[in-house]
Structures are given as C-alpha cells and as structure tokens.
Amino acid sequence: MQGDAYLKCIDPHCGLEYPIKSTNVECEKGHLLDVKYKNKPSDSLKEIFYQRRNPQGNIFNESGVWRFRELLNFCQIDTENIEECSKYLVSLDGAEGRQSKPYQMSKAAEFIGISNDKLWLQPEGYNPSGSFKDNGMATAVTHAKMVGAKKIVCASTGNTSASAGMFAANEGIRCDVYIPSGQIAPGKLSQAYQFGAQIVEVDGNFDDALKQSLDDAKNHSGYTVNSVNPFRIEGQKTIPYRALEYLKWESPDWIVYPGGALGNTSSCGKALMELYQWGWIKKIPRIAVINSEGASTLSDLYNGKFEGEELRWNKGNTNTELITRYYDHLDKEGIRPKTKATAIQIGRPANILKGLRALEFTNGVVTTVSDSEMLDGMSVVGLNGFDCEMASGASVVGIKKLINEEIIKKDDVVVGILTGRQKDAMLPVEYHNNPKNKFAIPPKN
Ligand SMILES: [Zn+2]
Predict the structure, then answer these.
(1) Entry pTM
(2) DSSP3 helix / strand / coil % (the chain, rounded to 5)
(3) What separation, in Å, do the N-terminal and C-terminal C-alpha atoms of the chain show?
(4) Could you give the 3-state DSSP secondary structure of residue 279?
(5) How far is the CA of 218 from the centre of ligand 1 (A)?
(6) What would the pLDDT profile of 258-309 be if each residue is shown by its tens digit?
(7) Separation of CA 131 and ligand 1 centre (Å)
C-alpha cells in the first residue's frame, strides 16, 4: 500500500516500513514505530488553524486535536470535507484539547521566581476525561476504527484507562483494562468502571499486566492503546501545537513536562522535529523532563547516575544494554517506583528511546523533584484558580529548580504542561490541613 502516510521503525539501522493500516506497535525486530508523512504541509495552514478557532458548528474545528488535522492526517482524507472527517475521525463532540491553551498564573510565577510574562502553564486536565491522554486517545481510537477493531485494550491504573473507556463507550466498542491483581485501589479505576470498561485482573505486577494486554491485542484481535501505539503520539503532538500557536509560532525557550512513560516527551520531540523540518519554526525549544525522586529511571540514566555513563540517543546508537542492566539492577535490589504522584510512578518508561531522541534533538535536560515539592507545585496552581493533579506539580517545581540551578535563565520563555486534573480527592485536603505546608490554608473554627 502506497500513500502519503506510513509507519517506519525509529531505529535508523533498521528502518523497516509498514502500511498505515498495520496494527503493529513494534517492527519485527522489536523497535518502536513512527507515523511518517511524505508531504510537507505548507505553513499557510497556520492561518487556517487560527480561523478554525471560530468553529462555526464544525466539531473538527472545535476540537483542539483535529483543528490541526493536516499535521496528523494519517487517515489520508480530504481534511476540508466534513462528511469525510465525520466518517473517519473520532472525537468526543470536539471536546478533546478544546480548552487547553497556555495561561499566565501569577502566583506560580512568583513562587518559581520568574517574571509573570515569561511563564505559561497549559492545563491538559481540562480534557473531557480529565487528562492529556484524550489528545492521543482521539487519534489512536481513530486508527482503531480505520482498521475495524471491535475492542481496544490497555494496561492502566489511571488516566489511560479513563480516556480509553470514555472514547470506547462513545464509539460503541469494547474496552478491556488490564491491571495487576490485588494491587490497585478500586477507586483509582472509578472512571474506567463508569465508562463500562471490562477490568481484567492479572497475576503479577504492572509489567505483567501490560504484557498480557499486548498479547491479547496480538492474538485476540484487540487493539492496543497504551502509549507504545504510535498513533497516540500523533494526537499528543497537538499539546505543543496549541502552545506554539498561542505564542504566534514563536518558539519558547523551554517546554517542561512531568516524566512518566515518556509519551509526552516523545510526541513533543516529534512535533518539534517535524515543524523544524517543514520550516514552521526557526528555533528549537529545549525540553525539560521532570521525574519524581521515587521514579527516576530517566534521570538516573540520562544524568549518568548509574554506572557513570550518560545515556543518550546518540543518533540511534543508544547503549540499550545499559538500560537492560539498570532494569536488572532494579529487579535484583527489589526497587519499585514509589511516589504519591501515581501518574508518573513508572520504573520502565515504554517510550524511553523516543524520549531520548527528543532530548537529543532539543538539547534537553532531565531532573527530579520530591513528593512534597510536587504537592507545593500542585497547590500553587490551585491558588490561581486552576485544578491539576500532583504529577503536574512536577512541571512547576521542576521549572523552579532549573531556574535556581541557572539552567533555565530568568529571561527565558517557559511553557510548563499540567498533565491532568485532580483525581485523588484527599490530596488537597491533607495538604491544606497541615499548617506546615507552604501554601496550606487550614480550616478555622
Ligand atoms: Zn526496527
């Protein structure tokens, strides 16, 4: 099958290609895949994207994902033809990404120690299922529909299962959510239950649950929607698109993300690589990834804290044996990722190689922050009237830390991504009931 869009292995020494309707999430040698486009979109589209912000009843213009549909046109459709769009593109009535754009938050800027007009924070929690995942789920489920999948599957204990369940219910297809048996508080799966997903309990840990969900996809015609799915990455490219558009396509100096499975880092890197290659941006923003201290795989490896070697993409010559030895070391020492910010409590980031590629392209940095710092970050966002989850606090305090270390300069323009809305009702209550916390407003009597 020949068309404008196809899949290609990310390993430059392998480079195997597959037709766009392939449901492989890896090449046959086990490397991750990219969605590639042969055509170079004209930057006159910038004006069209801007005009679509007045959607005039068209849900695909209203959608913060599909507004940019020419830049992720893996369906290879005529993007101006609304009937064709409705036949192919999956959308929750235009709600995905619709409300996400960068905001100035003066109290966060003051806490960080940066001037208010240099800091932009983008709340992705204002997506219909409450997290950034809806950006990539809209595109992944679009691909699932394109290949005629009757069931989507994922391993997740949080935001991914909520988003997958929501889109599956809306499209009238099944959704199976794999979880490690007996280890997950049922409340965490509340949204998955609400959307009628089938919970499947697996003996073992989260990695075993993921493995079984991938097997199910391969052998029982399920369709994987974890972030190893390259179409997830396509939708998540719209997070930096919206930030850049708001800044009139003038690149900021930094884009800052909390680091978990590294799907966000990967998609931001891919978006920037493409925009730069197409001549849409002249300057490449640097990506900063903020790990939790308790789940610091990327930081440990990138910063040479394990065996003294700084792990790099190295033009596709990554020392993957170093990663394997690091994981063996975690197993041998019984080290499990541990942080209250469950959205980034990940020891084996599935997209680590794409993440490293993004960091190399953008001259990125990686650092860590503590749980109590993240809670301060989460809470100061709240004082500006915006909701966010604890992992999102990592962006705020990560920026603060990097400014204190003079890695981010005080006059740099910084965009921080707030990945999700608060879903752990007790976290703010506990934070504010402890008067020792920096931003606590304890109850009075
Ligand atoms: Zn390959």
Answers:
(1) 0.97
(2) 45, 15, 40
(3) 71
(4) coil
(5) 18
(6) 999 999 999 999 999 999 999 999 999 999 999 999 999 999 999 999 999 9
(7) 31
